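pinned: reference chain
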Amino acid sequence: MNADLAMQQDLDALNQEIDKALDAALRNRSGLRLVAVSKRQPLAVVHQAYKLGIRDFGESQIQEGVPKVKASPDDITWHFIGHLQKNKVRKAVLHFHYLHSIDSLSLLNRVDAIATEERVCPKVFLQVNYALDSDKYGLHPEAVETVLEAALNLNHVACIGLMGIPPAGADVEKISAYFQGMVALRDQLKTRFPDWPGKLSLGMSGDFSLAIQAGSHFIRVGSRIFGERS
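pinned: its structure tokens
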């Protein structure tokens, strides 16, 4: 089987599962974006997925992602989904449309300062360490309101929502509870900031159906599209 056909079959199977989850949640596809996580995939594979209609790609390392951005069609929307180091902010701001992993007030302010200099306005998510997992980056849930308030007063950052990653190895019940907790946190914040979009970036290859049913707007899926990474 050639590579294009194999990827098309994987995409078709993925889309069937997405549609099933959307139906179960009484949602339609217009409120959901599929971000194809292309980290550790060669450029040729990105272009292969582009030929099959994918327009949102996610990278987690600046040094790997930026060359892909530069060598790819201009109508791709690029999402930075990894931990963002402060010395890599300028490259992130210049090359990625969405930053999913703003995990401190100081990082937020640096993104805004550089975006102001570069005259751009990236869309960002605040990453929340909702489960207080020592292996994960992210804001303490009780700190999110303060950081969000600061974000909404900045001129060159558009804070559109929250991002979260469930604890590794969690079972279905714990993952569902995690997603519901993130939804509740978002809803609580919306009562204070009613004009804030409050989008959710939740769900990866192993749990995207649960995330969709919880109400996620962005799912970050890699291996279900590209296979296991080398």
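why pinned: Strands lie at 33-37, 56-59, 77-80, 98-102, 123-127, 158-163, 199-201, 218-221. Residues 3-24 form the longest helix (22 residues).
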